[in-house]
Write a structure and sequence with these properties.
6 helices, Nuclear Transport Factor 2, Chain: A, 24% helix, 14 strands, 6-stranded mixed β-sheet, alpha+beta
């Protein structure tokens, strides 16, 4: 009987311990795919009209302004925090025409936090490290509407140690440094014949083996690519430009991440002549 009680007690302890680990995991994973900071303080409520923004101010990191990714997570998800980090009256430009939006007329902008995924475009592998740069003072979050041929630039500046939205500029593809690649990608994501013609065959492939804790490199033929390819966002994609001008290089790296952090893949494109070609897929 004593052995039975001991066995039951041990089982109960293991169940409680498992539940504890599960709760920790759920707290460590952010809703927006960008893991929110864990060392947090309560931000002051700076909302002028509580009837418009009645949500409680969320807890965010004391160092929320150190990395732009930490800041943008709170900016997208917290209405009161967003309102406190906009330079009013906010300048908005639509095809060259300027208007100004005051504080009371502002409507919360979730940016890409409500989408199933978000994307980022880099000109090479080294530029991916820019997102970890704490010395940045200017960053632009872009919403790219490929079917409409326009880009909405949300320009942020860091002043006196705090990030702030200072301007929204909406313009046509033709004025953007990524114009040529964006036109190509719009066709690549929506036209399977075009995609087949602009994919290297065989295609270099890399994946991670969790059993051996190592990367696996290999090759995919064109049919295997169509079997294993991820869902490619097409109509509405995003980009975060971490303050650097997009140079005229012959490479573009597209990173596709799900908001739940369940999927993250990288597509590498190289320009050949007057067009682009997918040359590597990493999952």
């Amino acid at each position: 009987m004593n052995k039975l009680k001991l066995l039951i007690g041990l089982c109960c302890s293991l169940l409680i311990l498992a539940a504890s680990f599960s709760a920790c995991d759920s707290r460590q994973t952010g809703e927006a795919g960008i893991v929110p900071p864990t060392d947090s303080v309560l931000l002051p409520d700076t909302t002028a009209d509580d009837s418009l923004f009645s949500e409680e101010t969320e807890e965010t990191s004391a160092a929320v302004d150190e990395l732009f990714d930490d800041f943008i997570y709170s900016f997208m998800k917290n209405k009161k925090f967003q309102l406190s980090r906009i330079k009013f009256p906010l300048t908005q430009i639509e095809n060259g025409k300027k208007t100004r939006t005051n504080r009371k007329a502002w409507k919360h902008n979730p940016l890409f936090s409500e989408s199933d995924y978000y994307t980022m475009i880099f000109n090479d592998e080294a530029s991916i490290e820019n997102e970890k740069d704490t010395s940045l003072t200017e960053v632009c979050v872009e919403q790219i509407f490929t079917s409409e041929g326009k880009i909405k630039h949300h320009r942020f500046k860091k002043t006196s140690g705090h990030w702030q939205l200072v301007e929204i500029d909406t313009r046509h593809f033709a004025t953007d440094a990524n114009h040529d690649f964006l036109v190509f990608y719009s066709n690549f994501a929506t036209d399977s014949v075009f995609q087949r013609q602009h994919t290297q065959n065989p295609l270099r492939f890399r994946t991670y083996d969790p059993d051996n804790f190592s990367n696996i490199d290999g090759l995919l033929d064109i049919e295997q690519w169509f079997a294993f390819r991820p869902e490619l966002p097409s109509d509405n994609i995003t980009n975060i430009n971490y303050g650097a001008a997009m140079p005229e290089t012959k490479q573009r790296i597209l990173v596709i991440s799900s908001q739940s952090a369940g999927m993250n893949c990288t597509l590498s494109f190289v320009r050949y002549g007057d067009t682009w070609r997918l040359v590597r897929f990493e999952n």
